[in-house]
Design a protein that fits this description.
Helix content is 18%, strand content 33%. The protein has 3 helices and 5 strands; from the N terminus they run βααββββα. A 5-stranded antiparallel beta sheet has the order 1-3-4-5-2. It is globular, with a radius of gyration of 17 Å. It starts with 14 loop residues before the first strand and ends in a 7-residue tail after the last helix.
Length: 152
């Protein structure tokens, strides 16, 4: 008789995006370096938005909703990542405003069962010419609404 692995928790909101931790992402103690978590979260978001057709291809004026800046980043480290391999980033929107948004994230095991770090990040959509806040497009807002956490 063989034991079955426990089922991964079902996500009731957001998306789980696979990411890879490489050996050179680890610090001298063999732990995922604290500065690598936000980089991996950023890469996961870029992948998710690219699936919806929002990309930066070198022209900020043409970038539209991809022209945005980070206003705030908060992260808490829950458990150490001690080896290279495949993990995941669980992404969702907490708030979708006219010119800004707040997204939540968890850096977690590949199946989403174990949380290593979690946090939020606030983005502001910018006008490429003035670098002042600008409204998200309706197309972007429609894609974003799919990621909103219930009750947000």
């Amino acid at each position: 008789m063989t034991a079955e692995a426990p089922a991964a928790p079902a996500l009731s909101y957001g998306r789980l995006i696979p990411v890879t931790v490489h050996f050179d992402d680890l610090d001298a103690l063999g732990l995922l370096h604290n500065a690598r978590y936000p980089v991996m979260v950023e890469r996961a978001w870029a992948e998710l938005w690219q699936e919806h057709g929002f990309v930066f291809e070198g022209d900020w004026a043409a970038a539209g909703d991809a022209c945005n800046a980070v206003r705030e980043l908060r992260i808490g480290y829950e458990a150490p990542v001690t080896r290279p391999g495949t993990y995941a980033v669980h992404l969702w929107l907490e708030r979708l405003g006219t010119t800004g948004l707040t997204y939540g994230f968890r850096f977690c095991s590949e199946d989403g069962a174990v949380t290593y770090a979690q946090g939020t990040r606030v983005l502001v959509r910018l006008d490429a010419g003035t670098l002042r806040p600008a409204p998200w497009s309706e197309r972007f807002r429609a894609a974003g609404r799919e990621l909103l956490r219930a009750g947000s």
